[in-house]
Amino acid sequence: MSTTDPECGLFVKGEKERVFAYSFHTACDRNGFVLGVKVTPGNIHDSQVFEDVLHEVTRVVPAPQAVAADAGYKTPAICKMLQEQEIRPVLPYTRPKTKEEFFKKHDYVYDEHYDCYLCPANAILSYETTNRAGYKMYRSNPAICQACPFRTQCTESKEAVKRISRHVWAECVEEADHLRHTEENKRIYAE
């Protein structure tokens, strides 16, 4: 906590930069006119204030057609909120957060009918539980993974278990990713 400004928060950027600061969240139209503003302590994640800023925007623009935002706002809850309000999400690509030599999440195929994942070796990762944050957890069978030739590209688990999480609103993020490839989203994001 800052002794000179207790209302600010510790802003962390990268692995080394840490500074007490505020974050200034601004929503503008395509001409740069400010439609909504929120100032928060620097330790508050962008996604936590999105709904407040969107509420300010909808007081000025009752039915926005699209919202363009950076990757900090690309969460299942925000994507779901935008879809429910029939607002087009215009969000950037976010690269997978896995180690270079490992399979990426998109290498595992989700089967919505059976609610399971198939790994690159065609083994099943079965549904295990849903946590309080809304993430469904899937788990492989260690007896199968133990002898798998892809194990070192899949998991570092000593128990030979691969786990994957999928948010209950993951399809909303997938739809936003799909829209990212459309000409309309490319045009809006470029503005």
Automatic annotation (TrEMBL):
<dbReference type="GO" id="GO:0004803">
    <property type="term" value="F:transposase activity"/>
</dbReference>
<feature type="domain" description="Transposase DDE">
    <location>
        <begin position="118"/>
        <end position="190"/>
    </location>
</feature>
<protein>
    <submittedName>
        <fullName>Transposase</fullName>
    </submittedName>
</protein>
<dbReference type="Pfam" id="PF01609">
    <property type="entry name" value="DDE_Tnp_1"/>
</dbReference>
<dbReference type="InterPro" id="IPR002559">
    <property type="entry name" value="Transposase_11"/>
</dbReference>
<feature type="domain" description="Transposase IS4-like">
    <location>
        <begin position="15"/>
        <end position="98"/>
    </location>
</feature>
<dbReference type="Pfam" id="PF13751">
    <property type="entry name" value="DDE_Tnp_1_6"/>
</dbReference>
<dbReference type="GO" id="GO:0003677">
    <property type="term" value="F:DNA binding"/>
</dbReference>
<dbReference type="GO" id="GO:0006313">
    <property type="term" value="P:DNA transposition"/>
</dbReference>
<dbReference type="InterPro" id="IPR025668">
    <property type="entry name" value="Tnp_DDE_dom"/>
</dbReference>
